[in-house]
Amino acid sequence: MAKTIMIQGTMSSVGKSLLCTGLCRVFWQDGYRVAPFKSQNMSSFCLATPEGLFMSQAQVIQAEAAGIKPDVRMNPILLMPKSDMGSEVIVNGVSRGHMKAVDYFQYKNSLIQDILRAFHSLSSEFDIVVIEGAGSPAEINLKQNDIVNVGLARMCEAPVLLVGDIDRGGVFAQLYGTIALLEEDEKTMIKGMIINKFRGDINLLIPGLHMIEEITNKPVLGVLPMLDINLPEEDSLSMGMHSFSQNRQGKASDTQRQREAQYDNLAKAIRENVNLEEIYSILDAGL
């Protein structure tokens, strides 16, 4: 079975998807068979696989960074918002219709077997599975029957790295507050913290790093700078699935060559700014 690591964030848009993409490329460069996984993704945009199944663009990008074809097992549940109160629910690439949020909250427990089936199937085929959380694990109003953050980490026995966004301000409050709102057994799942989107002199940040490590009893495993990485965002449809088959034939388009360069640049930044030796130790130790 694969080793696992999960990236959770202090809030949405802190860089979870980007970090997962970069780790997929790093592990692939290091010779591992690696696959991305996100149990449930909410996105207005998706892409169709050659089989006609739908999945989130984020996991398509992560798969490409890992050097593999996208597979709906990497994103078993996709919620496509259709109104302020509801979404189209896509399971294993196939629509199950529109549901109001309150109805889906009750329904989602029935999808746990789909999540676990997809995860264990990937785990049996790959060396490493990089799992992406959603939103924040400290959304205490949604923690009951959680299938995307702490609940998923528990089901998949995945150690967690917590990512905070310093560019928005208050990153130490983000990290401390998130951990403080977790139960004691949930806190033990978090094995380290990463600060993302840093600008300026790292020496001015170091005292804060020492203090947050002391009060949370968690190590800071890296500080990633604000990166000029131009990959498609969740609200973009600039990728086409055809590029994957072209890549296998050695006929990658200019657009794909540009993406490949971005994956390599992202991996380089992670190697330079994140303690990969410790991350490999976390992978080996498991949860």
Shape: globular
Radius of gyration: 18 Å
The largest beta-sheet arranges its strands as 2-9-1-10-11-12
Biggest beta sheet summary: 6 strands, parallel
* CATH architecture designation of the domain at 3-38 and 62-67 and 122-279: 3-Layer(aba) Sandwich
* Order of helix and strand elements from N to C terminus: EHEEEEHEEEHHEHEHHEHEHHH
What's the pLDDT, averaged over the residues?
91
The tally of beta strands, per DSSP, is 12
Please explain how this structure is put together.
This protein has helices spanning 16-29, 57-65, 101-107, 112-125, 150-156, 171-180, 184-187, 202-216, 242-248, 254-273, 276-285; strands at residues 3-9, 34-37, 40-42, 46-48, 54-56, 77-81, 86-91, 94-100, 128-132, 160-165, 190-198, 220-225. It has a domain at 3-38 and 62-67 and 122-279: Rossmann fold, CATH 3.40.50.300. With 287 residues, it is of the alpha/beta class. The strands form 3 sheets. A 6-stranded parallel sheet has the order 2-9-1-10-11-12, sandwiched between helices. A 4-stranded mixed sheet has the order 3-6-7-8. Residues 235-249 have low confidence and may be disordered.
Properties at a glance:
287 residues
Concise structural overview:
This protein has 287 residues and is of the alpha/beta class. The chain contains 11 helices and 12 strands.
Describe the secondary-structure layout.
Blueprint: E1 3-9, H1 16-29, E2 34-37, E3 40-42, E4 46-48, E5 54-56, H2 57-65, E6 77-81, E7 86-91, E8 94-100, H3 101-107, H4 112-125, E9 128-132, H5 150-156, E10 160-165, H6 171-180, H7 184-187, E11 190-198, H8 202-216, E12 220-225, H9 242-248, H10 254-273, H11 276-285
Parallel strand pairs: 1-9, 1-10, 2-9, 3-6, 10-11, 11-12
Antiparallel strand pairs: 4-5, 6-7, 7-8
Helix pairs in contact: 1-2, 1-10, 6-8
